[in-house]
Amino acid sequence: ExxxxxxxxxxxxxxxxxxxxxxxxxxxxxxRNEVRVVIGPNGAGKTTVLxxxxxxxxxxxxxxxxxxxxxTKMSEHAIVRVGVGRKFQTPSIYxxxxxxxxxxxxxxxxxxxxxxxxxxxxxxxxxxxxxxxAEIFLEAQLHTQADLLSHGQKQWLxxxxxxxxxxxxxxxxxPVAGMSVSxxxxxxxxxxxxxxxxSVVVIEHDMDFVxxxxxxxxVLHQGKILAEGSMEKVQSDPKVxxxxxxx
Length: 247
Ligand code: ADP
Description:
- This protein has helices at 46-53, 76-81, 99-105, 115-118, 123-135, 151-164, 181-194, 207-213, 231-235, 238-245; strands at 8-17, 20-30, 35-39, 61-66, 69-70, 84-87, 169-173, 199-203, 216-221, 224-229.
- It is an alpha/beta fold.
- The chain has a domain at 1-83 and 204-247: 3-Layer(aba) Sandwich (Rossmann fold), CATH 3.40.50.300.
- Helix 3 (99-105) packs across helix 5 and helix 3 (99-105) packs parallel to helix 6.
- The relative contact order is 0.18.
- Bound molecules: adenosine-5'-diphosphate.
- Residues 17, 22, 40, 42-48 line the site of adenosine-5'-diphosphate.
C-alpha cells in the first residue's frame, strides 16, 4: 500500500496538561502490515500517544484518523469497536478462568463481556478460540486456569484476547517486559505474524527486541518526533545518540 493511504494518520496532535505539552503537534502515519516501534526517554510522551489513540486521554487539538474514523471524537468503546486494540503493561486477564474462557469472553467485538458467558458456545466461537490459542502458543493450555500460566504466557493470553476482537490496529506497551529470552523470541515471531493484514504499534525499551521486530522506529522526545526510519537510521542519528542512546 502506498504512503498516501495509511491505516492510522495522526496530524498536528497536541495534548496539554496544565499548559505542559506532553504531545506537541505530532504527525505519525502507520501503514497496514507494519510494525512500528515508538522509543524515547521516560516522559517523552509515548504512553500519552497510545492513550490519545485509544481515547483514554482527550486531545487538546489535532486529528487521529483510523481508516475513515476520526478517533478524537469517539468514546473508548467506540474506538474498540472500529478495530483498535490496546494492551497495557499489566495483564488484565481473569486469573480464575481458563485460557479458553478468557478468550471466549473477548468474542466478538461489541458484545457485552459478561453476556458472552451466558450464551451457548457456538461452533464459530470455539473455532476462533482454538485458532487464536494456537497463534499465541497456548493450544496445549486451553483448559488451564490463567493463574497457572507463566508471566509470558499471561502476556500472550492478553494479546490473544485482543485478537479475538479482530482489531486492525494493535497497540502494545512493553510486551516483553519480564519475559524470558525464549519467550521474547516467540513474541517477536508472534508480532511479525499478527502484523500481517494489520498494523501494530509497540512501545519498547529493549533495543535488541526493537531491532528484531521494528519495520520502522519513531523516536519521541519532549512530545515531538526526534527521528524516524529504520532502526539503523535512527540509531546512527546524532540527535538520537545525544538524547537517548548515548547516556
Ligand atoms: P513516556 O511514556 O514516554 O514515558 P508519558 O506519555 O507517560 O511518557 O508522559 C509524558 C509527559 O506527560 C510526562 O512528563 C508526564 O508526567 C506527563 N503526563 C502524562 N499524563 C499526564 C496527566 N494525565 N496529567 C499530567 N501530566 C501527564
